Every structure is written in C-alpha cells, then in structure tokens.
C-alpha cells in the first residue's frame, strides 16, 4: 500500500511546530511542565516503536509516529479539551497537505482520544500514542527544579531520573521501567498522581493484546 503521509513530511511542516511552540511557551509562562518539541518527538518515537516491535504494518507505525508528534497541538488553545481541539487542528494541517482521508482519520482519532482515560483506545495507533504520551515521566520536564515550590505532580516528574518502555513480542508484555529518587518523592506519591494514567496504559496495552508491567527502582508493582 502506498502511503502519502510520512513522519518527515509532518516534522518539516511549519504549522505543527508553531502550535507546539505556542503551547509550550504558554505552559512555560505558568510554570507547567514541558509540552514542546521534546515531548512531541519522544511520544512519536515511542508510539512508532511500540507498533514496530509488535510487528504492525509500516503504515500503522508511520501513523502512530505522526499522531504521537501532533497529539498535544491542541494545548496551544488551552489545556481543557486539548485532545479534541488538537484533532481539529491536525485535521486542518493534514488537509492543507492534501493527505487522503483514509490516512487522516486514524491520526485524528488517536489525537482526539488520547485523554479518554475511561474508554478503551479505538485503534492500535491510538493505543500506541497513549503509551508514548503517558509514560513520559521525567525530571527534564520540570521548569523550576525548586523543591520548595513544586506541587506533587511536578515533584514526581522531578524525582524520575529514567523512564524506559520495553516492548516484548515473545511475552506480549509492555513494561515501563522507572527510576525514581525516593529522597525527592516516595513511591506512594507516584501512585497518588499517576494511578489513572497507569490504568490507562494497561488499557492501551490490552488493546494491543499485551499485559502492562510496571517496575519502579527494579521492584515490580504490576
Ligand atoms: Fe495531552
Ligand atoms: Fe502529551
């Protein structure tokens, strides 16, 4: 199957970049964690790799990368409803590129559903984007690393020194390996803040026929 859209074509297009930069500048102004190019590219890489390692088609891998890259463009309009706004923005970007709708729809449905924590992801592409997005916990995302002013959400990110998502096709497991500095944040705080996203990762993994596994400092929690 020939494919019109490519990850390269999207990252070279200036529109997506402007939305991501605007969103990140707005969040930086209020001290909210990084949501710019780094988060977009990391989500794209992880989403693409999840489907690649599970041997999905190259077309689905490419759509997962594109949707991962664009998933948070809606934050340029504000965080509320950013998934739905982002889907509309991505529709506009992709239509301007004259992409065919059979390639547009899997991308915008993944973007529009990436915060629907109470629902199962509608497609493999959507599941992969959720896994890329929700496993990005990292100290580099915190703008002001001052423990005296960080709220719990920022403190959990600040305490996370390493996050790695391992996909194993033989065992059909998707494992998130976190290294958390417990002097900054006890493990219980990770669950206080991230329980819903952990359950969402489990839902996304199951949509791909896999079990979600969580390790924190080499201890297995799931
Ligand atoms: Fe988001
Ligand atoms: Fe995100």
Q: How would you explain this protein's 3D organization?
A:
Helix content is 54%, strand content 11%. The longest helix has 21 residues, at 187-207. β3 and β4 (219-220) form a beta hairpin. It has 222 residues and is an alpha+beta fold. The protein has a single domain, classed as Hypothetical protein af1432 (Orthogonal Bundle), CATH 1.10.3210. α3 (37-53) runs antiparallel to α4 (58-70), α3 packs across α7 (124-134) and α6 (101-112) crosses α7 (124-134). The chain starts with 6 loop residues before the first helix and ends with a strand. The protein has 9 helices and 4 strands, in the order ααααααααββαββ. The chain has helices at residues 7-12, 14-29, 37-53, 58-70, 82-96, 101-112, 124-134, 152-159, 187-207; strands spanning 160-168, 173-180, 211-216, 219-220. The model has no long low-confidence stretch (mean pLDDT 95). The chain has a 4-stranded mixed sheet with strand order 1-2-3-4. The structure holds fe (ii) ion (FE2) (2 copies). One fe (ii) ion is lined by residues 39, 71-72, 133. One fe (ii) ion binds at residues 39, 71-72, 133.
What would the keywords be for this entry?
binds fe (ii) ion; alpha+beta; 4 strands; 54% helix; Hypothetical protein af1432; 9 helices; 222 residues
